[in-house]
Amino acid sequence: MTSIITAIVFLILAPLLGGLIAGIDRKVTARMQGRVGPPVLQPFYDVAKLFEKEDVTVTPSQNLYILAYLVFMAVSGAYFFAGGDFLLVIFAFTLAHIFIVLGAYAAYSPYSYIGAERELITLMAYEPMVILTAVGLYMVTGSFYISDIATSTVPAILYLPGVFLGFLTILTIKLRKSPFDISTSHHAHQELVKGLTTEFAGPVLGKIEIAHWYETVVLLGMIYLFFGFNPVLAVVVIALAYLLEIFIDNTFSRMKWQWTMKSGWGVAAILGFLNLVIVYYYYVGV
Amino acid sequence: MPNNRIRDAIIALSGLVISLGSIYLFATSFTGGSVYFPFPFEPTAQVMFVIEMAIALLLLYLGIKFKQYLAVLLVLVQTAITLYFEMTMAGGLEPVKNLFIDEFSIIMALIIGIIGSLIAVYATSYMNTYHEHHPEVRDRRKMFFFVVFVFLAAMFGLVFSNNLLWVFFFWEITTLSSFLLIGYSETEEATNNAFLALKLNLLGGIAFAASFLYLASVDPAGGLFELDALIASGQSVAIIPAVLICFAGLTKAAQMPFSGWLVGAMVAPTPVSALLHSSTMVKAGVYIIVRFAPVLLGTLAGVAFGMVGAVTFLLASAIAISQTNAKKVLAYSTIANLGLIVACASVGTPELVWAAIMLIIFHAVAKSLLFLCVGTVEHRTGSRDIEDMDGLIVKFPKIAVMIAIGIAGMFLAPFGMLISKWAAIEGFIDAPFGIVFVTILAFGSAVTVFFWAKWMGKILAVTPFGENLEGTVSRGKWVVLSSLAALTVLAALLFPLVSSVLIEPYVLGVYGETARLAQDNIIIMLLMVLLLLFLPLSLYTSSKESRKLPVYMGGRSTTPDLKFAGSLGIQREMTTRNYYFEEYFGEKKLLRWGNPVCILLILVAAALVAWGMSQGVIL
Amino acid sequence: MAYLKKSPWLLHYDASSCNGCDIEVLACLTPLYDVERFGIINTGNPKHADVFVITGGINEINREVVKNTYEQIPDPKVVVAVGICACSGGVFRECYNMAGGVDQVIPVDVYVPGCAARPESIIDGIVKALGILEEKRTAMKETERQHGN
C-alpha cells in the first residue's frame, strides 16, 4: 500500500521537483559564469510555452515514440519509488531511452539521426556501470529491491566507494552534462543543431523535457541508495553531488564520443569491478 | 511445376502434423515428470551402427572428392574410435531406459516441432523464389527438403534419447544434415564453409565418442550410458564424460574458437540459417550442456566452460556492432546468446539453469522470426545489408514491424531475452566467480543494446520517399511470419506459465530446488507488455492532426527525396549511415583475442579435470 | 496564459551580414547583458524557436534559406530584423545581387536599425517582439476556436 502511495506521489511531485532542480541548475550555472541567470521557475515557463506552441512533426509516429518515452520514464520511475526491483527499473529505463532514440530515427533527419546514434553510444557507455551499481548494492544489502536497499542500515557507501565514484561519473553522462552531452549538445545549441531533439517541437518537446525531469529525480534517488542508513546525510550528498555535476558541466568543454565510451567503460571496469571484487571476497571469503 | 505444388502441400501438411504432434505431446505429458521407455536396445543399435558407417563412408567420399583431407582425417579418427568401441566394448552393453520424456525434452520438442516446421513451410515458397533468383544453382530441392525433415527428426531423437549412444547417433546426423544444407548451392564458398562446419563439429564428435571409451571402461555393463544414471552417478564418475560431451556441445553451439562455422553457414539459403540458429543444430549443443549442468555445478571445469561462454557473449556481441550484413549481425548475435546460455548452464546453479532454458526458448522464437524476415527482405530488395534498410517501415510496413518485434524480443524489456538476462545476472551473483561473470554480462548487454537499437532505428526511420512494395509476398510466408511474430509477443506474455508448468518442475526435479522470478516483478512486466501493445492506439485517438514539416536541412530547401543544392550548383543527396566502429569492434581484431582466450580456457578445463582425476579430487 | 513572453527562444540567422551585427547579437548573451535573464535562449534550430533574428540583407543565395527556415518555425513566431542591412539592405541595397531587406522574403515584425545595432537596441527590439508574439498567440487561439466551431 505504501508503495502505491509513494509511486503516485512520485508521479505527481517528480516533475515539479525535477523542474525546480533544472531551474536551480540554470541559476547556479549563471552565477558560476558571473551572470544573473533566468528565474528559478524558468524551466516551467519553457515547458508551459512549448505546450502553447503549434504541434508540428515530420512524421506522426514521432509523437507515438515520445509518448511512449514519457510514459515509460514515468512508469519506471514510479516503480523505482514504489520500491521495486532495481534491475527491472534499469531495464525499463533502457526501454524508455530506446523510444526517444527511435523517435529521433523515425524523423529521418541528418541531425537527429546522428543525435540518435550518439545517444546510443552514451547508452552503451553508462549501462555497465548502472548494472554494476545495482549489483554492488545487492551484495552489500542483500536485496535487489529498492525498498530494502533504501531502508537498509548498512552504510553502503563505506563498502562501495569505488562504485559510488563510478556512478557519479556516469551520472554526468546520464544528465547530459558537458563533457558528455554529445547527443543533444545542451549548451552549444548550434553543434549538431540539437542532435536527438532536433525534429521535435512544441508540445512533443515539452514531453521530452518532462521526461527529463522524471529521470533527474530518479537518478538523484539512486544516489540516496548509497546513504539509506542516514537520510539527512543522503540529502546533503545528493545536493553536493548535483552541485559537483553543475561544476563539471561548466568547467569542461564537450569531448568526442570516444571519451564518453572510455570514461563510462573505464569507471565500470576499474572502479566498479575492483570495488565489487573486494566486497565479494570480503563477504564470500573465498 | 505440379510436382512442386504437391511437394509444398505435403510439406505444409507434415509441418502441421509435426507441430500439432508436439503440442499434443505437451498437452498429454507435461504433468508426467520424467518418463522412461525401455525401448529394445540391440536391434536399434545395430541399425544405427550401419547408418553411422554409411555416413562415415559418404563423408570420406566427399572429403576425398573435394580434397578436404583434414576432414577425411577427422572422419577416420572418429570412425576408428567408434569401430574400436563397437568391436571391443559394445558387446556387453545393455542399457535399458533408452528413450525418455521430461519437461526439458518437451520444451525442446515444442521448439523443434513448431518453429522447425514453420521454417520448413516458409522454405517451400522461399526456395521457389531462390531458384528464380539463382538460376546457376542446381535445383536439388528434393534432397533439400528431405534433409530438412531428417534434421528435425534427428533433433527429436536427440532430445528424447536417454541412451548416450543414441544421442551421439542423432548428434552425428545433425552434423551431417547441416553439412549438406550449408553446401546446398555448391559454390566454392558454400562447399568450403560446409566443410568448415563439418570439421569443427567432427572435433566435437570425436570428443563425444571418446567419452564412450571412458564410460565403457568404468562400467562394462553399460548402465552409465543412460543419461539419467550418468548424471545421478555423481561428479567423480561423470565429470570426465561431462567435460568431453560439453566440449562437443561447445563446438556445436559455435562458441569461440569454433564460432567460424556458424558465420560461414550464412552462405546457405536463409531458411537453413533460420533452422540452424533457432530450433536445431546449435540448440542441440546447448541442450546437452544444460543436461550436464548438475555435473558441472561447483567444478572449476564448469567455471572455465562458463567463461568460454561469457567471453563469447561479450566479444560476439561486440563484433555484431561492426557488421553491416544483416545475416552476419544475426549470426554473431546467435553466437553471443548461445554464449550466455553456455555460461549459465556450465556454471549450473538452479537459477542459472532456469535462465538458460528461458534463453533457449526466447532465442529460438525471436531469432527464427528475424531470419525469415531478413530473408524476405533480401528476396524483395536484393540486399541483406542493413544500410539498405532505410525506411523499411515505408516500403514493407508489415515486415518492418515484425523485424522490430523480433529485435525487441532480443534485447528490450519486457520481452523475452531480457528476462533471461536479468535472471542470469541475479543467478551469477551467488555463483563462484560470479562477479567476473556479472561484469562481463553488464558490458555484453550494453553492447547488445547498441547494435540492435541502431538496426531497429534504421528500419523504423520514416523516409519521405519510397512506396509500399509489400504486395506480392506469398500467403504461406505471411502465415509463417505472423505466427512467429505472435509467438514472440505471446512468449513475453506467457513466460510465467511456461516457467511454472515446464521449467520449474524440471529444475526442481534435477536439483531439488527451483528458481523463479518474483511475482510482483512478473506483474510489472506483463503490465509493460500490455502498455506497449496499447500505446499504438494513441495514434488513432490524437484529436487533431499535427502540421507536417520537412526535416531541418540547415535551411536548405530539398526535393521530396531529400536532395539539396550543394555548393557550385551540384545537387547532393542526404544519406545516413550507422556507426560501425570497425577500428574498435572489427571482426578480425576481436577474434584475434577471443579465440586464444577461449582455447586457453578449454585447455584449462581439460587440465583441471585431468589433474583432479590424478589426485582423486573434483576441481 | 502568456508563457510565450517568459520563454522566447530565438534563432539567429546571418543572411549576408558583415558579422558586425552578429557579434552584437552574441554580445547580448554575455554576462554583461545576459539575456537569459528573460528566459531567452539562442537555439540553433528553427523547430525550437519562437523569435527569428536575422542580420544582413537578402541576396539571391540566401533568399530560399531564409524563407525555408522561417517556414520551419512553429506558430506563433515573430521576425526581428537586426541592423540596417536586414531592415532595408543598407549600403548594399543597390548591389546587383541584393533583393533588399528581410521583408522582401518574409514578414518582419520588428526592425532594429543600426550599423552595427547596439546590444541595448537588440534587446529592446526583442522585448518589443515579445508583445507581438503574445498578440499572435491570442489571434492563433481565436482562429483555432473558430475552426473548432
The tally of strands of chain A reads 1
Largest interface: A-B, 67 and 62 residues
Q: What is the quaternary state of this protein?
A: heterotrimer
* Helix and strand element order of chain C: EHEEEHEHEEH
Look at the structure and give the CATH class of chain C. Answer: Alpha Beta
Q: Could you describe the largest sheet of chain A, including whether it forms a barrel?
A: none
Q: Please indicate the percent range of residues of chain C in DSSP E strands (runs of 2 or more).
A: 15-25%
What name does CATH use for the topology of chain C?
Rossmann fold
**Shape label of chain C:** globular
What best-fitting shape of chain A do the alpha-carbon axes yield? globular
Number of strands of chain C: 7
Helix content of chain A: over 70%
- Uncertain regions of chain A: pLDDT < 50 for 5+ in a row? none
Number of helices of chain A: 11
- Secondary structure class of chain A reads mainly alpha
Protein name (chain C): NADH-quinone oxidoreductase subunit NuoB
Enzyme class (chain C): oxidoreductase
GO molecular function (chain C): 4 iron, 4 sulfur cluster binding; metal ion binding; oxidoreductase activity
Family (chain C): Belongs to the complex I 20 kDa subunit family.
Per-chain topology:
The complex is a heterotrimer of chains A (286), B (619) and C (149).
Chain A: H1 2-32, H2 42-52, E1 56-57, H3 61-81, H4 86-106, H5 110-141, H6 146-151, H7 156-159, H8 161-174, H9 202-226, H10 231-251, H11 257-284
Chain B: H1 2-29, E1 35-37, H2 42-65, H3 69-89, E2 99-101, H4 103-133, H5 141-160, H6 164-182, H7 188-218, H8 227-232, H9 235-252, H10 260-264, H11 270-279, H12 282-291, H13 293-296, H14 300-321, H15 326-347, H16 350-381, H17 392-395, H18 397-411, H19 416-429, H20 434-460, H21 475-511, H22 519-534, H23 538-541, E3 547-548, E4 563-565, E5 571-573, H24 582-585, H25 587-615
Antiparallel strand pairs in B: 1-2, 4-5
Helix pairs in contact in B: 1-4, 2-3, 2-6, 3-7, 4-5, 4-11, 4-16, 4-21, 5-6, 6-7, 7-9, 9-12, 9-25, 11-16, 12-15, 14-15, 14-20, 14-25, 15-16, 15-20, 16-18, 16-19, 16-21, 18-20, 18-21, 19-20
Chain C: E1 9-14, H1 20-27, E2 41-43, E3 51-55, E4 58-59, H2 63-71, E5 78-82, H3 84-88, E6 98-100, E7 110-112, H4 119-148
